[in-house]
Predict the structure.
Amino acid sequence: MTGITGPLDYGFRTYTIDTDPPSVTPTPLIAGGMSAVPVPTPNARELTIGSFNMQRFFDTTDDPTVSDVVLTTTAFNNRLNKASLAIRNVMSLPDVIGVEEMENLTTLQAVATKVNNDEVAAAQPNPNYVAYLVEGNDVGGIAPARTLASSEIWKPRRWRDSSTRCKTAGPMAFRRCPTIRTSFPSAITTRFSLTMVMTT
């Protein structure tokens, strides 16, 4: 990248150059670039678990109870498409995905449906992703209590959620409570449980 001019910003552990408008400086020239490297394809005996921070993935509806952002329909659909591409082509469809910064269950269900439909449209087996949710305490509605999982792997007989023990006041308080979820599988013969801890 050459010819880029503008103030340097820093936030969320990332540096960003806010480029000047074309009326002030010429548009920067970009050549080459980075490409995503997919994770290895798992074999039939492997359980794969991923984590995906979706960076403030809001919906198209204003929620007056939180300080959210209202996306346009075009922006929302674009984000759905990008999430599907990342989960399918880069993450290689993990059995379980811990999702951070997703606004609500409806939006996460839209992601699951998009991934499932895109795989079927590509003549691939349906991963049967299902969305699970426990509400968090973030003022922007983006607490990390979200899970996408294949219904064949993560179909729980019961849940144990330890998130309610989180302190939200006092010197040792969490700004955002971590989510601690344990799935006890449906099959009685299964001898293991799966616990995930998610936070941002």
